[in-house]
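Phosphoglycerate kinase
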Amino acid sequence: MNAVDDLRRINIFFNSLAFNSLKAPWDKSCYHPRNLGAHTKRRRHIHLSSSPTPVLSELVDQTEHSLAQEDYNYDSGKFAVFPSVQFLRNFPRNELFGKVVMVRFDTLILLQGMKEHKPLPENAFSTIRYLYNSRAKVILAGSWNESANPKVHMEGSLSTKSVADFLSSMLELEVVPVKHISGFMHIDVDDIKKPSILLIENLFCFKGERANCSEFAKELTSGVDIIVNDAFSESHKVLASTVGAARFCNSCIAGFYFEEGLYKLKKIIKITERPYMAIIGGSKLADKAAALQSLVSTCDGLVFVGNMAFQIMHARGTPIPMKLVETGALEEAARIVNSAKSRNIPVVLPQDVWCITDHVSENIQIASVHSIPEGWQPVDIGPRSLEEMSYFLSESKRITWIGPLRFSSRMQDKDGTFKLAEALGTLSNCNVTFIRKMEFEESFWKSKSYSHDSFLESAAVVWEVLKGGKLPGLLALDRAYPFEVDWRVVYDDPMRPLVVDVGSGNGLFLFGMGRRRNDLNFLGLEMNAKLVNHCLDDVHQHGTHNVHFIATNATSTFRSIISSYPGDLFLVSIQCPNPDFNKPQFRWRMLQRSLVEAIADNLVHGGKVFLQSDIEDVAKRMKEEFLIYGKGQLEIMETEELGWLKENPLGVPSDWERHVLARGDPMYRLLLSKVENRD
């Protein structure tokens, strides 16, 4: 199809449509788009093929693993935890050029490299380099809290300049620290114009960061176009820089390091290999009880190698020194014991331990767990425990080790659990994953038994997910459509010109259009998944082959969805977006720059954009947004009285439009056409 045919089809389309009443395609009452109750959830008929995800070591160039949204079935029932989000890898690289991009980098990487001098992940800084090479204006933000007490003054610890120097050395690029004014970050316009990368001051010093203060988040993102969240280890926290800031930017997407962490987390949750064993280290059983119950319901056996082992012994009635008993843990430990019994899975506990006295590692001896001498502190499993645990785990096909390697970091010799970890690396056809803070010796990192993919540093994130909690930092990311639509299945002829209705609601408009024009395909993009399910059911029930619906946030996903359509996009409609007058800061969020640019870029030359609202201020705002951000490609077609179209040029009213006209109120309509760029 050439450009002349495109224009001819478009003109015929608009000339042929007449204003007629719209009859619903199903025998049900109409649902008011601004006052919708929850529909009964129905079976969704949708044809999708999951999009690929790159190999972690080459996140940009290769695609092998899938990160599509999944539900994971445990023995205890369905456990769905991961939403579908937008990744930097899928974001159009040309859209980064000249944009101000704030990267929330992972503090764990920073502290590991600067303070602990540990080897860093290969892709720790790949997000920053990628954005810089894409000619984006990069601003770095992080929170390096070295003390658990937020009241501790940070003077004398890691300064912003020292962090900037470290990042400069790692990136081999200039990183310039930026000062703050009146308690908020301040970025000078002149600073952004410079080719260097900017680093704002330590966010840990600001109460607004930890309190997720809306005002602080707004100030933090002033002038920022895109936020890239690469702080996976902090995704379980509610922070202004990761959660609150997402409300004030055009896009909030996941960086390469965040994507890698999410990929590993999904591998941990989704279990396919059996037998599957979990090794549990650390303490504070009461805080992790819900997560441990989840593991009990999933695993084929549990091995305890930390202080939690003594809480399980205590629940079983085994005498242990009272100084090892955690307050409030007995009841939860008893539940775990009973759950394991009900599933008939073994729970392996240490039989002997290495102990030290007076916190002096030179004074060390082996003791039975039943007779630890007074004044001695267990720091690692003993040789008998090592032998029994190694034998028990020898037939495993999948092992997850979560928590510290040892009872105590005071034990420095390579013995006990360290030897157990080394032994697991020799198992044939066994997938072993370590989830913990990185405290491995250099020789362990150089071991040929394990690769970087065997380690996930964000233990707190994993514990949160295992206990059924949400990850606010993940939920704040833009919801991208993580699938490739098989257009050949969705439509009889995917080469027909496409009409897209953004915010399609109950679908009445598109069903009416679809019945009139069999030579066109129609697509509805709607955030309300229940409405989409309802529409897809009716598409299936009535055998409609030129109308389809997708549950998505079009602001984030319009470009990725429509760019894969093999035919031409010649019409986009946005009808009656509902502003929230009770929350002025959200009033105009539905139509943002990223959506306007995506529409303008994907429209065929001569294609149209139809805008209408019953609120004149909303219509004016939409008009301004398209003229400002349309890149000079969109111009207003002929209007009528007071600059608005009197009649609907499409001839098919939406449900809300019919309601407005029935009560005698006006509609404010506008039609734009894509022309040659005159900028």
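thats it. The chain has 23 helices and 30 strands. The chain has three domains: 3-47+486-674, 88-264, 272-450. bye
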